[in-house]
Write a structure and sequence with these properties.
heterodimer, A: Butyryl-Coa Dehydrogenase, subunit A, domain 1, Butyryl-CoA Dehydrogenase, subunit A, domain 2, 3 domains, four-stranded antiparallel β-sheet, B: alpha+beta, Butyryl-CoA Dehydrogenase, subunit A, domain 3, 11 helices, binds flavin-adenine dinucleotide, FAD (chain A), flavin adenine dinucleotide binding (chain A)
Chain lengths: 413, 358
């Protein structure tokens, strides 16, 4: 054995290089072929298998604490993995909500038993999670939700309806926000629960979105019985738990690594421009350069947030900057796509998969400006929580939920 | 890559910020604008001698700090935030970068120490014709706009020669040099025209003058992005503060979404601008291959973002923001000038497209 000769930093760089190389090798060999052609139901088992392999190779939950099943590695490792992954298309879609939102919230707020029970299976892709917040009358204003959970001895009985719940059809568990006390103001009477999506009384109905696909659903709860230890965080502290989860959501949505060949990415649009002969047109070149700069700015911002988190500054509400920036970037890309692809973006030969993918991406652009809090809501968050600007006048802050006659409540609870 | 500042770099920022707050507050900025030089020579020397910020990227053997571009960008950011008029961009950035990039050790030894100490002011100009006659090099041509060309002691000139391009050092007191201070949109950044007729200059020894030019351009793009980011920060702070106190229709204007959302967008673009700046400065120090594209991205992103911020800053202040007494217009004028000084938005984007390989 030779003594390590390098400095700590050099040794770290070497270990990072090795990590990155292993990640590249893993990704080159482990991604199932043609997975993107699978129907959603066929994809699930393939995705589970891949996620398990990812975990076993040490690339899932890279920065999550080791005691809960994560890898306990640094933001630099996470970054190295993301750089490798950007060159690939990974079948990890079904786990986005679990890994980006529910898992980190479990780590923050769960009891030891809950962390023990749920975190590792989540990281290994054994269990899929969904987020049960929005209701027909409570979207941006989540805290005015009406789904109720009533005590029955030690248990809770849940009744109500959620909507636009992504991935609910394939989910094993959901993080549910429900009203447990209608006698206090709307934010104070909420509790977060972990719900088994196969429990009796849970019914999931797919909804079609504007791309024609059905990735989100309605979820109905009819007298669903939950045990006492289904509470995540504390009874009555559901709003705080929701804010924690929404914070993770924004960071994960805003900081998501964009695939290098993503249909609306500058690289793909540049390829398109070369193919259709518009790459020499100055306006097209300028458009592509502007798009590339905007992509880089957002990417570098999320790297910077991760590095800051590592040196002790948590992102806080700044996740909203990435979330809003990501949504705005898509509108810019959508414009560039129209300029470059022209009518090819709206009409194509049957069987032209690349064109089809572009069209689906175009149709999906509004989703980012709505899901996870609309752009306006993100701007409110940035304005109020980061810049400290005065809040909107609030008409219902101190009124017991039961007495609310404003907003969305039409019937007495 | 490293996108957060180290403790030492943060300390440098604090030192510069304190120095500027103490010596160059907003009133002082306006006072010096009225002086003949348009900047504070005493302050300049102290910045060189006491604070040591004029030679951050100058090697220690030449009297500099031997630090890097991240450090220099921290200083440029603070200067951009306060708009203190100074020849920093001309002297501590452009001139120093040319001398660092050429092969001419003798000229480096001659000019870098006084530039770093603030005893000499340098700048860079393009577009002259150089020819050998009367036993030396002579420069001809009309060069404009030259940044701080009115106060520079030495101008490093990129000129056409009978055998390609070359770099020359021109003493501004030499005969055949005529300077005219231009009237400028931005009162905090002086620009001049130099008319050269047979002005004697010394040729700098360098193998690839055009490569020197492009590396100097890249590094200038980084320093300029830092100024822009600093200006954005100050505009954001100023406007946010105002939105918290100004009352209209019985509410503080910051509680209106029309105002709040504009500020939120401004904050978001500033956060992203900081990120591309940190990356470009890091690349300047650590990854020269990555520098051209990182610098191009920084300019494509920061230049319009800084102008947008400054323009919104004026408008969000309402009538008071449009007055001469308010600082908002100074940021507006600086941002517009910076946006066009080194090339148009279209030039920047086309250059980035080339670098992207489109
Ligand atoms: C693709 C997709 C996936 C989703 N997945 C999930 C999921 O998995 N789980 C889940 O719980 N929910 C999910 N949602 C729901 C999503 O969180 C809500 O749709 C979103 O928060 C907006 O709520 P809303 O639809 O009720 O719109 P509304 O709140 O009714 O908003 C309508 C309009 O009013 C504006 N508005 C509302 N309030 C304000 C305000 N205070 N200031 C300014 N403007 C305002 C909004 O910006 C918007 O433009 C998903 C939605 C989409 C589109």
């Amino acid at each position: 054995m030779t003594e390590p000769t390098g400095s700590g930093a050099a040794a770290e760089a070497a270990s990072l290089g090795e990590f990155s190389r292993r990640a590249g090798e893993f990704l080159d060999s482990a991604i199932p072929a043609n997975w993107s052609e699978l129907e959603p139901a066929e994809l699930i088992p393939v995705a589970r298998e891949f996620q398990a392999a990812l975990y076993d190779a040490g690339f899932a939950g890279i920065t999550w604490p080791a005691e809960y099943g994560g890898q306990g590695a640094t933001a630099a490792h996470e970054q190295a993995f993301r750089e490798q992954a950007a060159g690939h298309d990974l079948p990890t879609g079904p786990f986005v909500i679990g890994l980006g939102m529910c898992g980190p919230t479990l780590v923050d707020l769960g009891t030891d038993r809950q962390r023990e029970r749920y975190v590792r299976p989540l990281l290994r892709g054994e269990e899929i999670w969904c987020q049960l917040f929005s209701e027909p009358d409570a979207g941006s204003d989540v805290a005015s939700l009406r789904t109720k959970a009533v005590r029955d001895g030690e248990d809770w009985i849940v009744t109500g309806q959620k909507v636009w719940t992504s991935g609910a059809r394939h989910a094993d568990f959901g993080a549910l926000l429900a009203r447990t006390d209608p006698d206090v103001p709307k934010h104070a009477g909420l509790t977060m629960f972990i719900v088994d999506m196969r429990a009796p009384g849970v019914a999931v109905r797919p909804l079609r979105d504007m791309t024609g696909r059905s990735p989100f659903n309605e979820v109905h709860f009819d007298q669903v019985r939950l045990p006492a230890d289904a509470v995540l965080g504390e009874v009555g502290a559901g709003w705080r738990a929701a804010v924690t989860m929404l914070g993770h959501e924004r960071v994960s949505l805003g900081g998501a690594t964009r695939r290098r060949d993503e249909p609306l990415g500058a690289a793909n649009l540049a390829r398109l421009a070369r193919e259709n002969g518009t790459a020499a047109v100055p306006q097209v070149r300028a458009e592509l350069a502007g798009l590339h700069a905007a992509e880089r700015a957002l990417e570098l911002f999320s790297v910077r947030l991760r590095q800051e988190a590592e040196s002790g500054t948590p992102p806080g509400a700044r996740g909203s900057v990435g979330k809003l920036g990501g949504a705005m970037l898509l509108w810019q890309a959508l414009h560039a796509a129209g300029e470059i692809a022209g009518t090819d973006a709206v009409a194509w030969e049957p069987g032209d998969e690349a064109a089809e993918e572009l069209a689906v991406a175009i149709n999906a652009v509004p989703a980012s400006s709505i899901a996870g809090g609309t752009n306006n809501v993100q701007r409110n968050i940035i304005g109020e929580r980061i810049l400290g600007l005065p809040k909107e006048p609030q008409v219902d802050r101190d009124v017991p939920f039961r007495d609310l006659r404003v907003g969305t409540q039409r019937e007495t609870t | 890559m490293r996108l957060v500042l180290t403790g030492q770099q943060e300390d440098l920022r604090t030192a510069v910020r304190d120095f500027l707050a103490d010596q160059a507050g907003p009133e002082r900025v306006r006072d010096v604008l009225e002086t003949a030089d348009g900047f504070d020579r005493v302050l300049w020397r102290r910045a060189g001698a006491e604070l040591g910020v004029l030679g951050l990227v100058v090697a220690e053997e030449h009297g500099g700090a031997g630090a890097g571009h991240v450090e220099r960008s921290v200083v440029a950011e603070e200067l951009g935030a306060t708009l203190v008029p100074s020849p920093f961009l001309a002297s501590a950035v452009l001139a120093v970068d040319v001398l660092n990039a050429v092969d001419d050790v003798g000229m480096r030894e001659r000019y870098l120490p006084p530039l770093a100490a603030g005893e000499l002011i340098g700048t860079v100009a393009h577009g002259a014709e150089a020819a050998e006659r009367d036993g030396g090099w002579r420069l001809d041509g009309r060069l404009a706009p030259v940044i701080s060309g009115d106060v520079a002691d030495v101008v490093l000139v990129h000129a056409a020669t009978p055998d390609g391009t070359g770099w020359f050092a021109l003493d501004t007191t030499a005969s055949g040099v005529h300077r005219t201070t231009l009237r400028a949109l931005d009162p905090t950044r002086r620009l001049a025209r130099l008319d050269l007729s047979g002005a004697r200059a010394t040729r700098l020894d360098t193998a690839d003058p055009d490569a020197v030019r492009s590396s100097v351009d890249d590094l200038a793009a980084v320093a300029l992005a830092a100024e822009q980011v600093g200006g954005m920060r100050r505009v954001l702070e100023m406007t946010t503060e105002y939105a918290k106190v100004r009352v209209q229709f019985g509410r503080r204007i910051g509680s209106y979404q029309g105002v709040k959302h504009a500020l939120a967008d401004l904050h978001g673009s500033w956060e992203q601008a900081v990120s591309v700046l940190r990356h470009a400065a890091w690349a300047a120090d650590e990854d020269p291959d990555e520098l051209p594209i990182a610098a191009a991205v920084a300019q494509v992103f920061c230049a319009p973002a800084a102008f947008r911020a400054a323009a919104d800053g004026v408008v969000l202040h309402g009538g008071i923001g449009y007055t001469w007494e308010h600082d908002a217009h100074l940021y507006y004028k600086r941002a517009k000038t910076s946006e066009v000084l080194f090339g148009s938005e279209r030039d920047r984007r086309l250059r980035l497209a080339d670098l992207m390989g489109v």
